[in-house]
């Protein structure tokens, strides 16, 4: 096998850590593999002569060249930022991405780098992912894309997208696994202290950080559900509290949030349970009761459906200290 040519596309405002994260892990993998296995030929490329990354770091870049895999890092993004204002000045980079994809060569985005792939037309009629915080925005801008916000890495017909920041290592380990073998990928993960068994970004989602619709009705319903978190769910009583019919409550809540009040209550209970698992020594049965479920098995099943992990597994992975 020949060396795999990997190019990282640097551009104004990109995250420098996402420019160098994948190359650094590939360098480790090459050392682990030894000289008898094909390594990696990595370059940082750009259509510009000078690139300044987020935070003011000036990056040394090479001209665009033919590579086997083109990696597109993410950039600084906060909810509410004008995405068009960010993407419009990146027309040369988007053209380079489009050209590389049209040649049938692999393209990879890290985190919100997916929005550059979308502008290049590479996500049309494909499955994709990005940071859970911006998955809805990607869905809105790309109605022809099946956005999978629970996935860490999605590959569809040569186009790979990843979740936020550290998911670049999940992608890099898969690339190492394919090019250098499972044993090299496994050892590289151990050397770098990188988790090579992650499958979902769902356990990391914090619904409090997600943008909420501005309509006051759903906010009032949410507040009441949060205040009565452990009470039995009673749709009729909930409707009566807001002087509307059950049908009207369901319709208005769904129009504003895209979910039902019960789905919101379940996610709120899971969010509270996550906090208790992370910060206290309470038993799973005790936490189950504390968030409104008398049957620990029912609670555990719901928790796993929302987070991708059973409660005890979640505690083992995310425990922050004793209660």
- Supply the helix-strand structural class: alpha/beta
Ranges where pLDDT stays below 50 over 5 or more residues in a row are none
Number of strands: 10
Mean model confidence by pLDDT: 91
Question: What is the compact description of this entry?
Answer:
With 323 residues, this protein is an alpha/beta fold. Helices cover 46% and strands 11% of the residues. It has helices spanning 16-33, 83-87, 91-102, 114-119, 135-141, 167-180, 182-192, 216-227, 235-241, 246-257, 261-279, 284-290, 296-307, 311-318; strands at 4-9, 40-45, 51-52, 58-59, 69-72, 106-109, 127-128, 146-147, 153-156, 159-162.
Describe what you observe in this structure.
The protein is of the alpha/beta class and 323 residues long. Helices cover 46% and strands 11% of the residues. The protein has 14 helices and ten strands. It has helices spanning 16-33, 83-87, 91-102, 114-119, 135-141, 167-180, 182-192, 216-227, 235-241, 246-257, 261-279, 284-290, 296-307, 311-318; strands at residues 4-9, 40-45, 51-52, 58-59, 69-72, 106-109, 127-128, 146-147, 153-156, 159-162. Strands 2-1-5-6-10-9 form a six-stranded mixed sheet, with helices on both faces. Strand 9 and strand 10 (159-162) form a beta hairpin. Helix 6 runs antiparallel to helix 7 (182-192) and helix 11 crosses helix 13 (296-307). The longest helix has 19 residues, at 261-279. The protein is globular and about 65 Å long.
């Amino acid at each position: 096998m020949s060396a795999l040519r990997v190019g990282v596309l640097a551009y104004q405002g990109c995250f420098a850590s996402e420019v160098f994260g994948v190359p650094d892990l590939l360098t480790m993998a090459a050392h682990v593999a030894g000289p008898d296995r094909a390594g990696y030929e990595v370059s940082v490329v750009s259509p510009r002569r000078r690139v300044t990354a987020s935070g003011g770091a000036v990056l040394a870049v090479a001209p665009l060249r033919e590579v086997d895999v083109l990696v597109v890092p993410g950039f600084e993004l906060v909810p509410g930022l004008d995405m068009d204002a960010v993407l419009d000045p990146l027309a040369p980079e988007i053209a380079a991405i489009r050209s590389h994809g049209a040649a049938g060569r692999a393209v990879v985005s890290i985190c919100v780098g997916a929005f550059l792939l979308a502008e290049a037309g590479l996500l049309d009629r494909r499955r994709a992912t990005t940071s859970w915080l911006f998955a809805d925005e990607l869905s809105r801008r790309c109605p022809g894309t099946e956005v999978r916000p629970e996935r860490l890495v999605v590959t569809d017909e040569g186009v790979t997208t990843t979740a936020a920041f550290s998911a670049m290592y999940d992608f890099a380990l898969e690339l190492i696994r394919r090019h250098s073998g499972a044993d090299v990928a496994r050892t590289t993960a151990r050397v770098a202290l990188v988790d090579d068994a992650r499958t979902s970004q769902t356990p990391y989602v914090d619904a409090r950080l997600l943008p909420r619709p501005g309509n006051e009705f759903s906010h009032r319903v949410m507040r009441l559900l949060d205040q009565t978190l452990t009470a039995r769910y009673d749709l009729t009583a909930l409707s009566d509290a807001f002087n509307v019919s059950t049908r009207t409550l369901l319709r208005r809540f769904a129009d504003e949030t895209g979910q039902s009040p019960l789905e919101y209550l379940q996610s709120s209970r899971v969010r509270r349970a996550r906090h208790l698992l992370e910060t206290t020594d309470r038993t799973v049965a005790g936490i189950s009761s504390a968030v409104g479920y008398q049957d620990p098995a029912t609670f555990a099943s719901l928790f796993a459906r929302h987070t991708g992990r059973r409660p005890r597994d979640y505690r083992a992975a995310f425990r922050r200290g004793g209660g």
